[in-house]
Design a protein that fits this description.
mainly alpha; 66 residues
Length: 66
């Protein structure tokens, strides 16, 4: 018996871990990083995100997402 409910009938239950992912395993853009940080997309925040991506690579997004 599966301990987790069928994903089609989750209702108000929390999402099972196997269905969660940050998206950091694929490609992401500076805009994605800005949005994940909770900031508005502006030229300044895009520049910040580009610097952060250059410095930390994939970890720049993984640090922000659970």
């Amino acid at each position: 018996m599966n301990a987790e409910p069928d994903e089609r009938s989750l209702g108000d239950l929390p999402t099972p871990d196997r269905l969660l992912h940050s998206g950091a395993e694929g490609e992401f853009t500076a805009e994605d990083l800005v949005l994940a940080s909770g900031r508005d997309v502006t030229p300044e925040t895009l520049a910040w995100a580009e610097r952060r991506m250059a410095e930390k690579g994939r970890a720049s997004l993984e640090e922000l997402l659970p």
